[in-house]
Amino acid sequence: MSGVFRADTGGDVLESARAAGERRAWGEAYTLLTRADQQGPLDADDLERLALAAYLTGRADAAADAWERGHHALVRRGQLPRAARCAFWLGLTLVLRGRHAHGGGWLARAQHLLETAALDCVERGYVRLPAGLQALDSGDTDTAYSIFSEVGEIAERFGDADLIALGRLGRGQALVAAGDVAHGVGMLDEAMVAVTTGDVSPLAAGLVYCAVIIACRDVFDVRRAEEWTVALDRWCDSHQDLEPYRGQCLIHRSEIMQLRGDWAGAAREVRRACEHLSDPPGDPALGMAHYQLAELLRLRGEFTRAEAEYLRSEDIGHSPQPGLALLRLAQRRADDAAAAIRRELREATAPVRRSHLLAAHAEIALARDDVTTARSATKQLEHIAATFGSPYLRAVVDYARGSVLLHDGDPADACAVLRRSKTGWQQLSAPYELGRVRLRMAQAYQRLAEHDAAEREVAAARRVFERLHAAPALGLADEIASLGSVYAVGGLTPREVEVLRLVATGATNRQIADTLVISDKTVARHMSNMFTKLGLTSRAAATAYAYEHHLV
User: Fold this and answer.
1) Is 122 helix (H, G, I), strand (E, B) or coil?
2) Example GO biological process term (predicted)?
3) Which is nearest to 329 in space by CA: 315, 317, 345, 340?
């Protein structure tokens, strides 16, 4: 019988291969099916099994070959719906690998096959999925939701568990993209419940897991993203030799570990992701992995290595912003940082993407004494946060608002807003972000002459930064601590203290402007405020004051 032979041990290799697939031992199934195929061509059923085993073990080219052969075999047998399904999975997996033209051709073939045959079958729902995804990518959420609803109706009519889950996934994504986050996330949860019960095939289940986690991350639903990431991790462990989804799982785990303050673990997981996604090459998720590694390196002060990773992520097709702009700010290249963020914001339309950029935009603008821009960015961020209703994003907004108020000379109101941010990060168990808020609060307390409170906030932040080896943040904590006595005596702002230090070195206004990356006019304003607060009338007197208070 074609495709079946007896092994030396007398066992039926194909039966063993099928049994291995049932046990989710995909590496064993692939090896046995390949051996059987070498002895004689597999029939269509076993070619589909071979394609699945090959894809799940990371052998994308072998999977494509098996699906193509299976498609042609099914066409010859007149089983056009199944032939269309083979073409669909082949086309979709090619698109996911970045081979859009080749994949699009197979997707079109699947659709044409069903249209020509005019058959009423569940595969009509599968071939509608690409149109829904295309509408979603273009921002046409109404059309996307309509298409995915149509897919869902077909899936329910035929009782196809894979298509039911994929239809719910698409509807959830469309609702989230349209701003109806609560209903959208609920639909995504429904898709996940179907997956976790084991009714969905591994191919569809992996796609749903990754898409739902990304959607939760994009709407800043940290707890839900963490819960589903743990579930994905367990699911991956239940499949032997599974490859395609482990890389993204490692990236998401790294992001959550970073938020929770396990930076060493986060770095370990994302390096594993980089290694995993590099073989075979071409996985677009690799850019996300390099970006995540760059973020960890930047926060630890390893700027040269961080820059290399940001640029690698960009080469692969993943935007290096806002991380690279924040790196430029840390490198005292504030103008470059501001220009990069402005350029990216002009091109970004999706609220999720803009929210990441706006938070960095506000931080960079304040570093350049551009309060107007920082205030505008914060207001836009508030509007997005109101849409998503996310505790994470609310804490981000409160940090930005408090920072603007502090820069505007309103430390009392800044403290009130920053306390809300502090509570938010505490509830999210995010120690690094909590430490950043504590430093802002310390600065506000210093302006209010509440020096004991300021010292407590700085000390608490330092403990966190020391544990995380967050060198740049630790340096900022030390600087804020050293300025406490200056605020107590003169009531100067941090920028005024920087100007005073530079004046004491003999720098001119032009040199000060170049050093701090601000305008000559801004330097003059800081000089005037500083002289008024300290009761000084000359640069010589300012220099003497700086030496007297150990600022030089």
Assistant:
1) coil
2) regulation of DNA-templated transcription
3) 340
Identify the residue whose tokens are 């940290």. Answer: 222
User: What pLDDT score does 306 carry?
Assistant: 98
Beta-carbon contacts of 431 under 8 Å, excluding residues fewer than 6 positions away, are 260, 261, 425, 464, 467, 468
Q: In sequence order, what are the beta bridge partners of 490?
A: none
CA distance 543 to 432: 36
Task: Give the amino acid at 99.
Answer: R
| Cα separation, 387 vs 12, whole angstroms | 59
Q: Is 47 part of a structural domain of the chain? A: no
Q: Are residues 326 and 358 in the same domain?
A: yes
Final residue before a domain boundary, out of 421, 449, 479: 479
The Cα–Cα gap between 549 and 551 comes to: 6
Q: Work out how many domains the chain is built from and give that number.
A: 4
Residues of the chain with pLDDT under 50: 1-11
Across 242-262, b (16+ Cβ under 10 Å) vs e yields bbbbbbbbbbbbbbbbbbbbb
pLDDT, residue 123, reads 95
Looking at the structure, do residues 551 and 490 belong to the same domain, yes or no? yes
CB proximity list for 369: less than 8 A, separation 6 or greater: 407, 495, 518, 522
Extract the tokens encoding 63: 């999977």
- Asked if the structure places residue 550 within a domain, the reply is yes
Burial of 281 (0-12, 13-18, 19+ CB in 10 A): exposed
Amino acid 278: pLDDT: 86
CB hemisphere CA count around 279 (13 angstroms):
3
**Residue 483 tokens, joined:** 């300025």
**And the tokens for 520?**
């000559």
Joined tokens for residue 141: 């959420």
Structure tokens at 83: 């032939």
- What are 92's two structure tokens? 């979709």
DSSP state of 6: B
- 201's CB contacts (< 8 A; 6+ apart) are 52, 161, 162
User: Which of 184, 175, 124 has the alpha carbon at shortest distance from 146?
Assistant: 175
Choose the final residue of a domain: 380, 406, 421. Answer: 380
Report pLDDT for 10.
30
pLDDT at 490: 65
The answer to pTM > 0.90 is no
- Residue 5: predicted pLDDT: 36
254 near 270, Cβ under 8 Å? yes
Dist CA 546 CA 540 (whole Å): 10
Q: What is the pLDDT of residue 8?
A: 40
Q: Which domain holds residue 443?
A: 390-479
- What is the phi/psi pair of residue 238, to 5°? -80, -5
Cα(229)–Cα(212) distance, integer angstroms: 9
Q: What CA–CA distance (Å, rounded) separates 453 from 445?
A: 6
Q: Look at residues 182, 180, 186 and name the one whose alpha carbon lies nearest to residue 168.
A: 186
Q: What is the CATH number of the domain that holds 263?
A: 1.25.40.10
Task: Give the contacts of 268 (CB within 8 A, at least 6 positions apart).
Answer: none
Nearest CA-CA partner of 477 in 445, 504, 506, 443: 443
> How far, CA to CA in Å, does 385 sit from each of 99, 288, 359, 382, 457?
36, 24, 11, 5, 27
Query: Is 205 inside a domain boundary?
Result: no
Q: Which amino acid is at 526?
A: H
